[in-house]
Amino acid sequence: MPQTVQLFDTAIVGAGIIGAALGHELQNRGHKVALIDQDAPGSGASFGNMASIAVTEFMPVSRPSVWLQTPRWLLDPEGPIRVAPGYVPQLVPWFLRFFKAGMPSKLRLLEAEGAALCKRALPDMQALMAGIGLSDDVSETGCLSLYANEDEFEADRERLDMLDRHGFDYEVIGGNRLRELEPEIAPVINKAVLLPDNRTVRNPVDIVTRLTEIIAARDGQIVRGEVTGFEVIGDKKTVYLNDGSHIIAKQLLICAGAFSACLVKMLGEHIPLETERGYHTQIMEPGIKINHSIIWPAKAFMVSPTASGIRVGGTVEMAGLDAAPDYRRARVTVKRALEALPDLKLEETSEWMGHRPALPDTIPVMSASGKMPGVYYSTGHGHLGLTYAATNAQLMADLICGEKPPIDMTPYSIGRF
Ligand SMILES: Cc1cc2nc3c(=O)[nH]c(=O)nc-3n(C[C@H](O)[C@H](O)[C@H](O)COP(=O)(O)OP(=O)(O)OC[C@H]3O[C@@H](n4cnc5c(N)ncnc54)[C@H](O)[C@@H]3O)c2cc1C
């Protein structure tokens, strides 16, 4: 059924956590907003992520230590990264940019650009959650990073050095203190780092649902439809939907996560966006309780306490947007998690795959179009879309409303590609 055409201040394509948080913030600033999605709000990557406000995880993914380990990881069918052989030709340009981004001359800059966002991420998210009545959904406890031996700890040293450089809190703890905090951890782990500011939300999709309910209740419109094209004529942006209807707005924002590249291309610009597919297993009846989220860097998985049990996830799979999920990837992370949490019971489980919107330099695009006034892009938040959502909303709303953002936005510009 074609929808009625109305004039909006801002049309936002993509009702994931990025689009919904930004739509909500623009509404706070007086905009009449249309939030458009082909699916139910929050059913993309924002549905099933690991629920972590992971403020210490801003290290650029491309770096020499990762390059050195990548061949070994790729040869291991249970390794943390899998590249689908048939997809390799399409990945070549992305990987060339990826290696360029990891050059030592560039690394410290990228790290500082991630840190500038992460510094604000927890307070911004807490303020957002308070504003939508979900303060209690943010945990008071942080994340534990586990190590079975000194070699594993030393291998993670570059991350701790980075946290030192940027003044992020952490505490190195031994086995006894670790077991006081998390009695279920296996004896094989005898050292950990407590990351107190890496909080967990109860259920990521609940945040999107609440945001969209508020947007709709305050005279915004949640529009269901696939965006198939645009027409930009000065102040008038027309968004065409697959049912033949269209939306007209003064400003247009693309927040379609890993699907943004083709929408950006329709607008005549380029963004080298790939999907880093990731998996989770939700364990509804885990038989144990954990108080913190848990990562084991050497085993490349994460475990989070969520509203409906324990969520296990991680891994990166480069196989494009269309390939069917390969849930063996999810089972590998569960196998690893059992090494850390041997009493975890696998009862009532569900598996899920989502698309992280990944840029080769790990830094999101939060930017005005380089070509068309009134067109904006907010995508490529990679492994940190939930973490960055509230900060992204503040910074982008400043840009869109003509206010001066509190940090320099140049590094996040689409013009860097
Ligand atoms: C396994 C996994 C674990 C993760 N863990 C964490 C974590 O713990 N912490 C963290 O900060 N981040 C995490 N992330 C990353 C985070 O989930 C993403 O960065 C974030 O959800 C991206 O949000 P988004 O709104 O940009 O995209 P999405 O949530 O994917 O939303 C994009 C929306 O755009 C819509 N769309 C696309 N094309 C069109 C079109 N043509 N027309 C209309 N609508 C369209 C889609 O339907 C979708 O709803 C994880 C990701 C994965 C996969």
From the helix content, strand content and strand pairing, which structural class follows? alpha/beta
Find the CATH superfamily of the domain at 7-46 and 205-272 and 362-416: FAD/NAD(P)-binding domain
Overall helicity:
25-40%
Query: For the terminal residues, how far apart are their CA atoms?
Result: 39 Å
Strand content: 25-35%
CATH architectural category of the domain at 7-46 and 205-272 and 362-416: 3-Layer(bba) Sandwich
Give the CATH level 1 class of the domain at 7-46 and 205-272 and 362-416. Alpha Beta
Provide the list of bound ligands, each named once: flavin-adenine dinucleotide
Shape: globular
Q: Give me the number of helical elements.
A: 12
- Uncertain stretches of 5 or more adjacent residues: none
Largest sheet: 9 strands, mixed
Gyration radius over CA: 21 Å
The count of DSSP E runs of length 2 or more, i.e. the number of strands, is 19
Roughly what is the average pLDDT, rounded to an integer?
96
As for the CATH topology of the domain at 7-46 and 205-272 and 362-416, it is FAD/NAD(P)-binding domain
